[in-house]
Amino acid sequence: MASTIGFVHLLVLGSALFVTGLAGFLARRNLILMFLATEVMFQGIVVTAVAFGRYHGQLSGQAFALFLLIVAAVEAALGLGLVVLMFRRSGSLDAEAWRTMREE
Amino acid sequence: MIASSLIFYVLAALGALSVYCLMPSAGYRLTRGRRALGTILGAAALAGLIVWLIGLRQVKALMPADEPLVGPFFYLFAAVAIASAVRVVVHPRPVYSALYFVLTVLAVAGVLLLAGGEFLAIVLIIIYAGAIMVTYVFVIMLAQQAHSGDLAGSASYDVRTRPAFVPLLLGFLLLAALGGPLSSRANWPKPESPASVNAAPALAKPLIEDQGAASDAAGPVMTAAPQGNGPDTDAPAPGSIESIGEELMHRHVLAIELAGVLLLVAIVGAVALARRRVEPADLLVGPIPDPRSPAPGKEAAHG
């Protein structure tokens, strides 16, 4: 098993993580789990960014991943604050409970 | 090469079928057989993916190829990451989903460690597994009804998800579109010449030399190390804190400032969100508030 690990390996891993998170985001109804699925998508993006940066011999990919971490932290703080507010309002975490927000 | 991408499509379809079987969309009672089927399908897809990845020939190794354990560790971390990500998505209990997500983060950090991102791996563990997941678990505990050991007390929106067919079809299509073309080498971008690798250290050179010159006055002990080393040996390893810091401070200064502003705005927004609305009648119990000063809670979101 002396296979070299190239960037296709990392790209496939990153896209698999991203797609898993995407499917979870679309399928789950729990608001917290939908946010958690976006975090899974972030993991895929981090892997992809590092892979591309490494492939081109630059550090910009890792810098981008660092900024992604900052955005993820901000998103978690604000999004979960909103989720708590919505839970207080409707008494459930169901995303379907808010479907009447649309214009009839 | 067409056969190689076809294999990838089949593997992606297997994975999508596995997640479809594991997704608790048809009631938990019915999914005993489906769980077993989904687990078997998922394991098969994952094993097939690993075999498919081993068979790929790479033009440029991103990880040290002479170390015999790098390949097995990469496949181990990748399998753990994908499997635990699937568990995050399909688990009917949010707390377990959060814990599986910690496992995903640890596995991804392992992959990054192998790929030369040491600092990023540590930061990922500290921020994600340390800070963000504490927030998630806290909110899950706060917003969830206490339930007994079985799933009977779980919320209905956890046990019964949306119909999972369309999301998984979309996921399969996206994964096939992303990963299928990667199997033919003609689609890979050309790696840049290693000369561009040294761009960041070359930019950093004047800074380091300035520091060396400044510390000349302080004493000869400080300057001995930077002057004694050649240009190759004092270049920091890519992925270390030193090189990441130079990269950030030389090329992404504006982005760093913007990130600081973003964090500040997030703090203000979180405080504004978390404030409980105070009715003015409640305040009248105490001393009458000064009408010139705005009442607390007035600026909060309405309702």
Strand and helix map with partners:
The complex is a heterodimer of chains A (104) and B (303).
Chain A: H1 7-27, H2 31-55, H3 60-90
Helix pairs in contact in A: 1-2, 2-3
Chain B: H1 2-22, H2 31-55, H3 70-90, H4 94-114, H5 118-143, H6 156-159, H7 165-179, H8 199-214, H9 220-228, H10 241-251, H11 253-274, H12 280-283
Helix pairs in contact in B: 1-2, 1-7, 2-3, 3-4, 4-5, 8-9, 8-10
CATH fold-level topology of the domain at 2-187 in chain B = Four Helix Bundle (Hemerythrin (Met), subunit A)
Beta-strand content bin of chain A? under 5%
Q: List how many beta strands of chain A DSSP finds.
A: 0
- SSE string of chain A, helix = H, strand = E? HHH
Principal-axes geometry of chain B comes out as: globular
The biggest beta sheet of chain A is recorded as: none
Number of helices of chain B: 12
**Total domain modules of chain A:** 1
CATH class of chain A: Mainly Alpha
How would you sum up the global shape of chain A? elongated
If you had to describe this structure to a student in words, what would you say it looks like?
The complex is a heterodimer of chains A (104) and B (303). Chain A is an all-alpha fold and 104 residues long. Chain A has helices at residues 7-27, 31-55, 60-90. In chain A, helix 1 runs antiparallel to helix 2 (31-55). The longest helix of chain A is centred in the last third of the chain and has 31 residues, at 60-90. The termini of chain A are far apart. The longest helix of chain B is centred in the middle third of the chain and has 26 residues, at 118-143. With 303 residues, chain B is mainly α. Chain B has a domain at 2-187: Four Helix Bundle (Hemerythrin (Met), subunit A), CATH 1.20.120. At the A-B interface, helix 1, helix 2 and helix 3 of A face helix 1, helix 2, helix 3, helix 4 and helix 5 of B.
Task: Record keyword descriptors for this entry.
heterodimer, A: 104 residues, mainly alpha, Helix Hairpins, 74% helix, B: 303 residues, Four Helix Bundle (Hemerythrin (Met), subunit A), 12 helices, globular, disordered C terminus
